[in-house]
Design brief:
By secondary structure, the protein is mainly alpha-helical. The chain is built from 13 helices and 5 strands. The chain has helices spanning 15-28, 40-43, 50-67, 84-93, 98-102, 105-113, 120-134, 148-165, 209-217, 235-248, 252-258, 264-290, 293-322; strands at 2-7, 33-38, 74-78, 140-142, 173-175. A 3-stranded parallel β-sheet has the order 1-2-3. Strands 4-5 form a two-stranded parallel sheet. The model has no long low-confidence stretch (mean pLDDT 94).
């Protein structure tokens, strides 16, 4: 089946972004026709510096490749280079009730944080996301929990359009990683790891070994000594177990067994070593690829051509159904 997912080109990727999103993409690309894109149109819903945005978009492609997205199996493209995203978003906006947008949790959160004027783009964000998905008639969309509301919204829009104009869009299913996908802050396990939180609460994927060690040894853990997985009672240590499990490719149960009666300090030291090793591999690949400018641009071009051919054919159908004069 065809799957599609996007990621924004803002901030340095942290461990949460990788374990929550990209790690599952790497697995899915073996089984499905996969399209992944850098959501630069979404990024500008928060003001961006133009030069920095351009660089970040390129760097994200490099990061995806270094993390294991294989251009032989997946297409990687840049959202703004396929104009149909914006075109379909406009059409979908004309069948979207304002109330549905105002109810979105992510919008409410972001609107609260936004200082100064509030722009329509932030409110309309889910419509663009729906267009991203529906354009490609994807059957499934890998997302983490916090995006499920947007996917539900997308499904509603697809059904509404199909009912009004005739069967056009696939109604997509969410594909949520088995782990639930949420990595918590190293300093406050009540919150998720986020790029907008303090530096010592998150691990960048490009973090150097000394800093990895410092942050993991300094991670807030719960009272007690046992390494037991219990997200409700021991969120701090459970989060570290989840990270060990996902990075090491071993079930959480086995992590518990391995460190039974060893105490927090030994466990944290082992986790730091595992991360230093795995992120070291990533860093090396990233640096190698980053200098291969032409190669990266070629991958972006191939991705765009593939995405465009699907998007153009969907839009031809949509235009006809809506009643626009043919080109
Ligand atoms: P942030 O919260 O750091 O601003 P984004 O909202 O840009 O990150 O998220 C980019 C992608 O990474 C999304 O798919 C998001 O759900 C995922 N993601 C972000 N933070 C985490 C986390 N702590 N755990 C798991 N996945 C996460
Ligand atoms: N909104 C998503 C996020 O912030 C990114 C995104 C944009 C996306 N369009 C998408 C994800 C389409 C999946 C499918 O993480």
């Amino acid at each position: 089946m065809r799957i599609i997912s996007g990621i924004q080109p803002t901030g340095n990727y942290h461990l949460g972004n990788y374990l929550g999103a990209v790690q599952s993409w790497v697995k899915l690309q073996d089984q499905h026709e996969s399209l992944f894109f850098i959501a630069d149109l979404h990024a500008i819903t928060i003001p961006q510096d133009p030069e920095a945005l351009k660089q970040a978009t390129f760097d994200k492609v490099v990061e995806l490749l270094a993390l294991g997205i294989n251009p032989e199996k997946s297409s990687i493209f840049v959202q703004s280079q396929v104009k149909e995203h914006a075109e379909l978003a406009w059409i979908l906006s004309t069948i979207t009730p304002l109330g549905d947008l105002e109810r979105m949790t992510q919008y409410k959160d972001k609107a609260k944080k936004q200082k100064g004027e509030l722009y329509a783009g932030l409110l309309n964000y889910p419509i663009l996301m729906a267009a991203d998905i529906l354009l490609y008639k994807a059957k499934a969309v890998p997302v983490v929990k916090d995006q499920i509301q947007h996917l539900e919204f997308t499904r509603n829009l697809a059904q509404k359009f199909n009912a009004r104009f005739g069967s056009t869009f696939e109604v997509p299913e969410p594909l949520v990683p088995e782990s639930g996908g949420k990595i918590l802050s190293l300093q406050d396990p009540a919150r998720k790891m986020s790029k907008s939180d303090p530096e010592d609460s998150r691990l960048s994927l490009l973090e150097d070994p000394d800093s990895i060690k410092k942050k993991i040894l300094g991670a807030v853990t719960d009272t007690g000594k046992q390494i037991t997985y219990n997200p409700e009672k021991k969120p701090g240590i459970s989060n570290l177990i989840t990270i060990y499990s996902l990075m090491g490719g071993i079930p959480a149960k086995d992590v518990e067994k391995k460190f039974k009666n060893k105490g927090y300090a030994i466990f944290k030291k082992a986790l730091a070593e595992l991360l230093i090793e795995k992120l070291g591999v990533f860093r090396k690949k990233y640096q190698e690829l980053k200098s291969r400018d032409l190669y990266i641009h070629e991958i972006i071009k191939q991705g765009r051509m593939k995405a465009q051919s699907i998007a153009e054919s969907t839009m031809e159908d949509v235009r006809k159904k809506v009643g626009f004069l043919p080109l």
